[in-house]
Amino acid sequence: MYLGTKLREITFTNGEKAWAMSPSKYVQESVSNCVKHVKANMSDMFSLPKKAINPFPTDYEPMEDGTPELDAEHASYYQQLIGIMRWMVEIGRIDIDTQVSMLASHVALPRQGHMSAALHIMAYLRDHHNSRMVFDAHEPEIVKSDFKKYDWQEFYRDAKEALPPNMPPARGRAVDLRLYVDSDHAGDKVTRRSRTGYIIYLNSAPIQWLSKKQSTVETSVFGAEFVAMKHGIETVRGIRYKLRMMGIKVDNPTYVYGDNMSVVTNSSKPESQLKRSATPSVTMQYVSR
């Protein structure tokens, strides 16, 4: 066991081996403790659903919840639940990341509906506790022809990636990084703030993921997607720096996958002129570099 997860070595059909991580035991114990607490202290108001196919109840929107506020005791337990589920996300339960992030926005003033939604997630975990994340070291199949190279010398003459000045000599094979990024434009129906979501792979192993509400209100899908791209690129730059400080060879660029062609065009083609507003323009300069 390591930090609530079970690590084990698995063997692929081709004979190659890899490490796998499962938070199943931590999830089961957390759900069991939750059930006991609810029965002992909250049975007059709350209960876990008997069946939960999805993490959230159908069509539930936490930001629109107008149910009564929780008292101090129940609010404290709600905050505990959010902390427990956030740790589950950290150790591999990516499938509840967005829902937990949405409920975490209400820890300061939780309502009864928020508690019911949190208990619904626990019921979902009760029914779907068995999961495993495999850290596959195989090199991914990247269609490099999809990533066209353009000459940026006119705009960023002699620009180079910042390398750690005291990094150790690299050893072993080089690794590839991939970033998959998307946004949910104006997903918050009250503030109309969008949500950034991304997952980063080291070769074929997922190493970092995020679902977080953006700090700005973007009026267009293009703007929301660009902000999400910037958040992902910031994280990737930090990871590349850390890998080199650990003596891991990173030769290739990071391959970024997004579904908004306007963002792809404006961040990859030098001739694209982005002058819609200051924020997207600055973001474009950051992402392009």
Topology:
Elements: E1 6-11, E2 17-22, H1 24-41, H2 72-90, H3 97-104, H4 112-127, E3 133-135, E4 177-184, E5 195-202, E6 205-213, H5 221-245, E7 255-257, H6 261-268, H7 278-288
Parallel strand pairs: 4-7
Antiparallel strand pairs: 1-2, 2-3, 4-5, 5-6
Strand order, largest beta sheet: 6-5-4-7
DSSP summary: helix tally: 7
Give the overall form: globular
Structural class: alpha+beta
How is the biggest beta sheet arranged?
Answer: 4 strands, mixed
Terminal residue distance:
41 Å
Mean pLDDT: 92
User: How much strand content do the residues show?
Assistant: 5-15%
SS elements, strand count: 7
Low-confidence stretches: none
Summarize the amount of helix as a percent range: 25-40%
Spell the H/E element sequence.
EEHHHHEEEEHEHH
Instruction: Return Rg in Å.
Output: 22 Å
Can you characterise this structure?
By secondary structure, this protein is an alpha+beta fold. The protein is 36% helix and 15% strand. It contains 7 helices and 7 strands. The chain has helices spanning 24-41, 72-90, 97-104, 112-127, 221-245, 261-268, 278-288; strands at 6-11, 17-22, 133-135, 177-184, 195-202, 205-213, 255-257. The strands form 2 sheets. A 4-stranded mixed sheet has the order 6-5-4-7. A hairpin with a 5-residue loop joins strand 1 and strand 2 (17-22). Helix 1 crosses helix 4 (112-127). The two termini are 41 Å apart. The mean pLDDT is 92.
